[in-house]
Design a protein that fits this description.
heterodimer; A: mainly alpha; B: twelve-stranded mixed β-sheet; 13 helices; 12 strands
Chain lengths: 554, 339
């Protein structure tokens, strides 16, 4: 559809062209420069540790540990995606097609991946499912067992299960949203023409819902492939290290920046491929969707067996998804000696958290950083919105500016450390976190804008407005909810981020996520859990506040 | 809908907050009487020696000490390498004898022979080039949970027996000094054949954690009955938990010693104060805080040990590994462990 630039007056056309160039000038360097500096510095040896050039680069690529890391990254991502789809699709189906009591609660569960930072998720996961966790202890007590029955933590299975529990709510949310917008009329028409339910499903429903599933699957695959916090804590050895963990080990443990650069390039190439695939699938899925969600049927009107099965599924998957968060909550209200012992109920952890000046400082500083990252992230996302049309097209631009999702934030941080050896502190951390967060904000805003009725923009063009003006005066006010969701999303990402925080580790700027990670590492579970609960609460509140401006029918 | 939360009102304060935080981070103070010490987590923690000894030094020399935690010893060295061009740290606390090769290769320390070197107990001065000055020592060993395991392994070779499958918690030698200590034990005992031993050991390993804290925490939470730690851990439990449930295993072949040390950063901005800090670390005022907080033997001769230290066995033999050999093994470890 024709855009306003050609119809506006000459002067503002130049300005609007300039605005469209801004992302290339301001945003692209944000991730290209640090990443490039880190990789080149590492491979050439100018980053402080010996480089080795191309020969070393190729030798590293072929070494057993790198091969094992790549293999593990790919296999666990595949398995995690599979399990996430298994756990998430039935829920997405129910959510998109039926109305039932507790629907809103289940839908709220699907917000968990956004408010629950992976490092704290791992904490809750171990508390719930670890060898000495709540489930195992409960089973052992109930069945009188001597050894814990569930021993999958700290292994390939542990990483996969943790990934699946964290990501299946994402599948429910993404796929549910896409499915709820699939037009029902072809199905109804087929029913009128006499086709059976099975035939309708196979020939009409399935082809229309598959693109959404494929898009969600590729996104979950990408997240699991780039995973850091979960394999770092649950991993259990170099054979269970994803490429991101290997990069961190190379930089932090071995000071081998050449190896880190090699790994980062390998990881980046694979991830960009998946990102491009996701972009294509996402555009495909969006192209076949309607503007408003289709009608939902009440679940109580279905057959009894279906109702019971659905209720069981919803309760079961809901409990699974909420188990780490609940374990976190439960553990935060216990008191345990530093080295083992039986836990007793106590609000000691919270008392200590709110009276310790160091932890109060961490809370204040983390909030400050989160606000800065939210402002930066959404600012960048809005800037990117200016230059694009309403339809979510899969093109070079959409993949290029989403690149930060595919680039190691450990390497981005290393890049800032290489470029600014004296002072890469909180400022660099804010930039790295904003770089990691803006693609998600951009997606949220983009998707919301594509749902604004085209008629409004066309009317504005007829009245002589150009693209930036339309964005500012027509679109943005209608995007209020999406804007707040994006701010909340960026803030939540910042609150829980540890990849860059571990690398940049600003000395006079204590952070909640890092503090929780260190406490978790020294097995001070109740304290770590208390901090985790606080972070999740804040992120949850931010999203709830954003939700209050919702214009969507619930 | 009122515009209470209009974009402008949220944006401006948020951007201001962002700018403020950036400015505060870049505002590096340039005090004369200041010392920046990078140390590992357990040194700077509330239960560690840092909070006790730093005020003593500050009072004696009328200065301000910034004690920074950099994670574990591996990360400590990393941080130093990254700021090599313009170092912010003056003193590094926590590098040990097994990291000497790496530290010298990284070229981040300057030579300093402390005047108080005479206060050191015999046999502890492992660095003849005087880049690193020892301040405490301990012995790496396997700790065993007597309540969860009836038959502990007696020697290193015993660990490969099928009865110990998934019962051993190790640490990553690239990021953890106890992890490196265990690798040193294996290399010292098996020599060039250490990769084959490691392969045979694999089935017994439950997990390889990145830090000692995590691994030992898993051990005390009952996740596995064998873990790499120090002989003095047994003493810790006797004193604090009033239990002798956790025991140390002393291999007949001998145990590897860990001598922890501190060094002055090459190009440090406050070299004089840094030298004073190194001297201070060898004096009784510093050394006497070590046993109860670090649970290591103080390097200085003549410091009184708590009664519980008698529960920590002393090995008959100490194993030693050549730093270059250990360095080579460490470089190969990831590949060996990943196969």
């Amino acid at each position: 559809m024709a855009w306003g630039g050609e119809y506006a007056a000459g002067g503002s056309r130049l300005w609007s062209r300039g605005i469209r160039l801004l992302p290339w000038l301001l945003v692209a360097p944000l991730f290209l420069v640090p990443f490039g500096a880190a990789v080149m510095g590492g491979v050439s040896g100018s980053a402080g540790a010996p480089g080795g050039g191309i020969q070393r680069f190729l030798a590293t690529l072929g070494s057993p540990s790198v091969q094992a890391s790549l293999r593990f990254s790919l296999l666990q991502a595949l398995a995690s995606t599979g399990l996430s789809l298994l756990l998430g699709l039935p829920g997405a189906w129910l959510l998109s097609r039926y109305d039932f009591r507790g629907r809103r609660l289940y839908a709220a569960l699907s917000g968990i991946p956004f408010v629950f930072p992976p490092v704290l998720f791992t904490l809750g996961f171990v508390r719930a499912w670890g060898r000495n966790g709540l489930v195992n202890s409960g089973l052992m007590a109930l069945l009188g067992l001597e050894h814990p029955p569930l021993t999958f933590a700290y292994s390939f299975s542990g990483v996969v299960v943790a990934h699946a529990l964290l990501n299946f709510p994402l599948v429910v949310a993404l796929v549910g949203a896409v499915w709820s917008r699939v037009p029902r009329t072809p199905e109804d028409a087929a029913r009128c023409l006499g086709a059976g339910e099975g035939r309708i499903f196979a020939t009409i429903t399935l082809p229309s819902i598959l693109p959404g599933v494929a898009a969600a699957a590729s996104l979950v695959f990408l997240y699991c492939f780039m995973s850091f916090a979960i394999p770092l804590t649950l991993g259990g050895g170099p054979q269970y290290a994803t490429l991101e963990v290997s990069i961190y080990a190379a930089v932090s443990g071995e000071q081998d920046f050449a190896r880190a650069g090699t790994l980062a390039l390998l990881e980046g190439c694979c991830a960009v491929g998946v990102l491009a695939l996701y972009s294509l699938l996402q555009a495909r899925a969006a192209a076949t969707s309607t503007d408003a969600p289709a009608e939902r049927r009440p679940l109580s009107a279905s057959r009894r067996t279906f109702r019971l099965a659905s209720a069981a599924w919803l309760a079961g998957s809901g409990a699974l998804g909420a188990s780490p968060l609940l374990a976190l909550l439960g553990s935060s209200f216990t008191r345990v000696g530093r080295w083992g012992g039986t836990p007793t109920f106590s609000t000691d952890a919270y008392a200590r958290t709110f009276t310790d000046p160091a932890s109060l400082r961490a809370m204040a500083d983390s909030l400050l950083l989160a606000l800065a990252v939210a402002a930066l992230g959404v600012g960048i996302a809005v800037l990117l919105l200016v230059g694009e049309g309403r339809a979510a097209k899969a093109g070079f631009r959409s993949v290029f500016f989403a690149l930060p999702v595919a680039l190691s934030s450990v390497m981005l941080s290393l890049g800032y450390l290489v470029l600014f050896p004296l002072g890469a502190g909180v400022g660099a951390l804010a930039l790295v976190q904003a770089t990691a967060a803006y693609p998600l904000a951009w997606r949220t805003l983009s998707a919301a804008r594509s749902r604004i009725p085209a008629g409004l923009d066309e009317a504005a063009i007829l009245l002589g407005a150009d693209r930036p003006r339309i964005l500012a005066t027509v679109d943005l006010p209608l995007l209020r909810q999406a804007l707040f969701s994006s701010l909340a999303l960026c803030a939540a990402i910042s609150l829980g981020e540890i990849n860059a925080a571990l690398m940049l580790n600003p000395t006079d700027f204590p952070l909640l996520g890092l503090r929780a990670y260190r406490l978790m590492g020294s097995y001070q579970y109740p304290l770590a859990c208390a901090l985790g609960v606080i972070v999740c609460l804040w992120a949850g509140l931010a999203f709830a506040a954003a939700d209050r401006f919702s214009e969507e029918p619930r | 809908m009122s515009c209470l939360f209009s974009l402008k009102r949220v944006f401006r304060p948020a951007v201001a907050a962002g700018l403020l935080s950036v400015c505060s981070a870049l505002g590096l103070s340039a005090q004369n009487k200041e010392l920046v010490v990078y140390a590992y987590d357990s040194f700077t923690a509330e239960w560690g020696p840092g909070p006790k000894v730093v005020p003593l030094f500050e009072k004696e020399y009328d200065c301000k000490v910034t004690l920074v935690s950099k994670g574990d010893a591996g990360q400590l060295l990393s941080a130093a390498v990254l700021e090599k061009a313009a170092p912010r740290a003056d003193v590094l606390v926590g590098l040990d004898n097994n990291l000497l090769g790496k530290a010298i290769k990284a070229d981040v320390l300057q030579v300093y022979r402390p005047k108080n070197l005479g206060l050191l107990a015999a046999g502890l001065d492992f660095d003849r080039t005087h880049h690193l000055t020892p301040f405490d020592y301990g012995y790496f060993c396997l700790m065993w949970d007597s309540q969860k395991l009836a038959n502990p392994p007696r020697t290193l070779a015993d660990l490969t027996r099928p009865e110990y499958a998934k019962k051993l918690i190790l640490m990553d030698p690239r990021t953890s000094t106890p992890g490196l200590g265990f690798l040193a034990t294996v290399v010292a005992a098996k020599g060039q054949g250490w990769p084959d031993f490691w392969k045979a050991l694999k089935p017994s390993i439950l997990t390889v954690t990145s830090g000692w804290d995590t691994g030992y925490g898993m051990f005390t939470q009952g996740e596995a009955p064998l873990v790499v730690s120090y002989t003095t851990s047994a003493a810790y439990h006797v004193q604090n938990d009033k239990t002798d449930r956790y025991k140390a295993i002393v291999f007949p072949e001998g145990l590897v010693m860990q001598v922890e040390a501190a060094g002055i950063v090459k190009g440090a901005r406050h070299a004089e104060l840094a030298k004073a800090f190194i001297e201070f670390m060898l004096t009784p005022k510093f050394q006497q805080e070590l046993p109860a907080t670090q649970w290591m033997y103080p390097a200085s001769a003549g410091v009184k040990l708590p009664a519980s230290f008698s529960a920590a066995p002393k090995p008959a033999k100490t194993l030693k590994v050549d730093p270059l050999v250990l360095d080579k093994a460490l470089a190969r470890w990831a590949d060996v462990a990943a196969k």
